[in-house]
Fold this protein.
Amino acid sequence: MKLWAGRFSKEADERVNDFNSSIRFDSRMFREDIQGSLAHAAMLAGQGILSQEDEAAIAQGLEGILQDLESGKLAFDPDAEDIHMFIEAQLTSRIGQAGKRLHTARSRNDQVALDLRLYLRRELGEVEALLKGLISELCGQAAKYADTVMPGYTHLQRAQPITFGHHLMAYAWMFRRDLLRLRDAAGRMDSMPLGAGALAGTTYPIDRWQTAKALGFSEPCPNSLDGVSDRDYCIELASAFSILMMHLSRLAEEVVAWCSWEFKFIELDDAFATGSSIMPQKKNPDVAELVRGKAGRVYGDLMALLTMMKGLPLAYNKDMQEDKEAIFDGVDTVKLCLSTFTPMLATMTVLKDNMRAAAAKGFINATDCADYLVKKGMPFRDAYKLTGGLVAQCVREGRTLETLPLAEYQKASPLFQEDLYTAISLDTCVQGRTSYGGPAPASVLRQVGQMRAFLQELGD
């Protein structure tokens, strides 16, 4: 018999029971459901709505259920409609009439809204810890390779010389924004829906502020309709997860390219690569490729939530049961990707000589050649055109700017002198880019220091 069956003259069709049930996925919130029920019972007793004896029996019963679920002694009933009814039925079977009084002054609508916020708050702490770990690893690698010259790219064409450390710190700054987005979303999740009831609160003299404080919220939701029907926090988290996965996917794409023989800038550790069933020479960057693919999965979770909510009138509608599978999948996917990606980066081998050799080709010091002329007094546009002509000459003759004789330079302009070759050397090009945020080794190390200070300020 369902707990809501009083209005009905017959049992629901078994197909409806299966269709309606959410126990297979919302059972993961059992700790939060018990936590919320303990706080609710304590508040009811404090307000004189529940006797102290009943509250003590409820607390003892709930603690026993929690212990049994965590130890595996108690299994979830697949026939239960949801985690809330499962725990309430278990409680009533253990302590009798007192268990039936627990649901006074609340509804499953505000109960599930509370459980989901509590669960996501806990999961967010784990995601943050993993994200901090990734940022910290990027900082460590960036400091190690702060002076490792590599080509920077635009349009996937070699553009200007940078360092590998500078490249990695670009991603560290992206992930810093992701961390702040998650923190912002958590702040907007910091209101407590319990006590909103089904939609219109309750006539019982409850103290929602007491419950909010007991559960670690700064305030109760100020509107009962909004309290039970709000799923903005799921959508906002899914959006933040999607942006985070986009950043991970971009870095994953670079890892895939860098591992290829066409680049060969890095080599992944054997523990984070796979082989081919037919080609014995292959070493595939499957971790990076899967991260790239799973970004689309998280985008799908976001779209599912947006589409599910877009046409719902106030207040609660059964459609909203679909929120959990989507946001749970988003949480699980992000955690899985972060926990795998960070050690992959930590164990990679950086092939510095290959990066340097690539930087030596492609005329990526052409801008520095033009800047040399500008510093001698030539207008930039004239210097740009002249340097472009020299690059074209080098291409025709199979030379580079470093190997073009000074006499050829001086045919183009008498401003060129012997010091040109120092000015256009890769090391000079990189070390001279000391503008704030630039790729000079000192700048990279400054960025690393800034990022580590940021992580320290956040604390645990």
User: Anything to note?
Assistant: The longest strand covers residues 157-163. The chain has a mean pLDDT of 94. The radius of gyration is 30 Å.
